[in-house]
Backbone:
């Protein structure tokens, strides 16, 4: 096992009294795809900014590629590709120009940057948009252009902060496909997301973050095994009746979660539980049996759902 | 440089402990240290390159403003208004030269200030906030100070181009009797940058624009033009009003330009004061703008 590319130990970032990141430790190995999963305000973006060497830590140790970001910011950033949460493409420039100016920031020769720009436009499926204005692109295209821009220096580590937030399902799948390709080529990915399906799709390993601390760490499958059951039965009895019905479900399933709009029953066999419940004379308005997801892991760990 | 060397030896120190595991890592570290060299040295220039490309998207404006506005002003004031001034009050109040010769160097200096007003206000708000390209540069290996440097560098080049065009038209109008006239190009750029760097620093402090920039235009730039000896000598004011001119970079820049274009008689120490004042103002603005860049980009 080669040396980790990112090592964070007891990382803390305070703004005044408020600790946005409160003692986070993790390591990312080369070629690994590592995720920070958590709700908005959990400290994911702050962590990303520290790893991206654009924000100084208040306490703790952090090395990226063996270097301390406080002293070697430009050196570290020369090896990173950054996809920020909000696109910051230059809307005064054309699509291809955005790649050209950005490549220069890494000190790369113009000719090389021009070649890369064409390759990356192809990779981002934007070949025929090179001369277009940035603002004429759809949200998904802008995101792909931002990813292309982040790859212009052939980075060792790609940092993706909420890569698909705000995109429609089709655009998300196109983006995931592109990220998969990078993963296959051995690029190390560090991404934040509050979408459990995204984390399951893209992450080899992840940490669940809430209120600036790590709640759990592992592969998506291991986390689900450890913190949830195989299946989940979701039932709606109507918002005024959920709490009432929940009182009569004692002994059903491994565990119950009563949410304002629905009741979740964690069990190895959801269908069997549903039969027992209807057998007892309770008839939900809607019911659904599904496999457990990271959402359930998060709910178990924090008592809250990810998207509130 | 010594920092770089120290860290490399630190990485190699680790490698010594566990050679098999650390070989790849120190390669990676070494690659990073090598790749950081160009951006550390040339980062500000890369930022300027970016700005030039953006400026290219409004080349039309730059050229039209660069040629059109001197033409307009030189003609209207230096030819039109001059017929009245020269005819009625004579050359005495403006130091023994024609009104055209008197007003042209002032217009040159004030054109540079106008460019500063354009480039160091909304584009700065844009870069920090509205379309945060400055954050994008910083996410790449560019340091915040280099962002500020690069922006100033690019605007300096635009000012230089404008001033050269303006000066060429002054020659055409016959407004430059002295052989040292070309130095007015440099003094105009210095004037624009002195005011501009402070303006940039101020704009950088704004978290949002709730009309401050329009106020600056209306209550700083415009009065400055009126009270800097641009259209008439500052000495027509009573002495207690003249300090308005003395603090104005435009007054210093205008007087300096006059010394160069027609040998405006003033003691040499005053000429030195003009240069020193402008250089000092630029230095203060520059240092301030860099500090705010660090504060805003390294949160």
Residues:
């Amino acid at each position: 096992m080669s040396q980790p590319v990112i090592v964070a130990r007891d990382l803390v970032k305070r703004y005044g009294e408020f600790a946005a990141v409160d003692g986070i430790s993790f390591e990312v190995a080369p070629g690994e795809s590592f995720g920070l999963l958590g709700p908005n305000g959990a400290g994911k973006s702050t962590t990303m900014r520290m790893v991206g060497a654009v924000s100084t830590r208040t306490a703790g140790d952090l090395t990226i590629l063996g270097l301390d970001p406080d002293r070697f910011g430009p050196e570290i950033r020369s090896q990173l590709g950054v996809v920020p949460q909000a696109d910051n493409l230059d809307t005064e420039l054309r699509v291809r120009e955005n790649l050209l100016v950005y490549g220069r920031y890494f000190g790369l020769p113009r000719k090389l940057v021009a070649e890369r720009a064409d390759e990356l436009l192809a990779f981002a499926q934007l070949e025929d948009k090179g001369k277009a204005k940035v603002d004429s692109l759809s949200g998904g295209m802008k995101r792909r252009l931002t990813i292309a821009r982040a790859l212009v220096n052939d980075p060792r580590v790609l940092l993706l902060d909420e890569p698909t937030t705000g995109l429609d399902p089709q655009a998300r799948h196109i983006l995931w496909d592109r990220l998969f390709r990078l993963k296959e080529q051995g690029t190390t990915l560090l991404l934040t997301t509050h979408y459990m399906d995204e984390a399951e799709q893209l992450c080899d390993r992840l940490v669940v973050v809430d209120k600036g601390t790590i709640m759990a760490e592992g592969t998506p499958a291991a986390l689900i095994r450890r913190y949830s059951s195989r299946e989940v039965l979701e039932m709606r009895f109507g918002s005024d009746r959920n709490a009432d019905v929940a009182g009569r479900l004692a002994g059903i399933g491994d565990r119950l979660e009563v949410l304002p709009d629905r009741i979740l029953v964690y069990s190895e066999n959801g269908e069997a539980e549903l039969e027992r419940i209807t057998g007892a004379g309770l008839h939900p308005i809607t019911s659904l049996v599904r496999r457990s997801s990271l959402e359930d892991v998060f709910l178990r760990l924090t008592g809250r759902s990810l998207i509130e | 440089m010594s920092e770089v060397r120290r860290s490399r030896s630190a990485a190699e120190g680790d490698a010594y402990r566990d050679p098999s595991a650390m070989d790849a890592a120190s390669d990676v570290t070494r690659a990073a240290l090598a790749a950081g060299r160009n951006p550390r040295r040339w980062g500000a220039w890369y930022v300027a390159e970016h700005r030039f490309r953006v400026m290219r998207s409004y080349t039309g404006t730059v050229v039209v403003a660069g040629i059109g506005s001197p033409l307009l002003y030189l003609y209207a004031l230096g030819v039109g208004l001059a017929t009245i001034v020269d005819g009625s009050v004579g050359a005495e109040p403006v130091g023994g030269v024609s009104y055209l010769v008197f007003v042209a160097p002032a217009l040159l200096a004030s054109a540079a200030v106008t460019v500063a007003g354009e480039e160091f206000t909304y584009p700065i708000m844009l870069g920090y906030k509205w379309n945060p390209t400055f954050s994008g540069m910083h996410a790449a290996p560019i340091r915040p100070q280099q962002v500020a440097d690069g922006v100033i560098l690019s605007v300096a080049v635009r000012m230089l181009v404008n001033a050269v065009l303006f000066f060429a038209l002054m020659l055409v109008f016959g407004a430059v009797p002295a052989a040292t006239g070309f130095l007015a190009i440099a003094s105009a750029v210095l004037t624009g940058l002195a005011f501009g760097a402070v303006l940039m620093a101020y704009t950088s402090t704004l978290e949002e624009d709730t009309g401050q920039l329009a106020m600056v235009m209306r209550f700083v730039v415009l009065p400055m033009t009126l009270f800097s000896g641009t259209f008439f000598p500052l000495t027509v004011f009573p002495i207690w009003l003249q300090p308005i001119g003395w603090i104005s970079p435009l007054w210093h820049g205008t007087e300096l330009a006059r010394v160069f274009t027609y040998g405006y008689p003033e003691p040499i120490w005053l000429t030195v004061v003009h240069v020193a004042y402008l250089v000092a103002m630029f230095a203060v603005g520059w240092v301030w703008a860099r500090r705010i860049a660090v504060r805003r980009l390294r949160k």
Observations:
- The interface with chain B takes residues 1-3, 5, 30, 49, 52, 54-56, 65-68, 71-80, 82, 84, 86, 88-93, 97, 100-102, 104-107, 153, 156 of chain A (CB under 8 Å).
- Chain A has two domains: 6-218, 229-291.
